[in-house]
Predict the structure.
Amino acid sequence: MNFNAKLLRQALSSITLKDFFWLVLFSLFAGHYLVSHQEAEYFWELWMMRSYYPAMLGSFMIAFCLCFVICCIDCCLNLVWPWME
């Protein structure tokens, strides 16, 4: 399969601000889950720890990149094969 820059540009332009908002919100929840999974502390205890924020930032970036790639693949597939047909 050849890389088509025009298709990727169209897919990126089809992502709206509402989609981006939901992407960031989901990435925050996913990042928090990655940090707090199997931790003995509650949310407010994690909130007070200084090590929570760098871990949350790293997990957020991983989750955001992964979700953004999935969203771009979905948009590209929607342009190539519309699901309404």
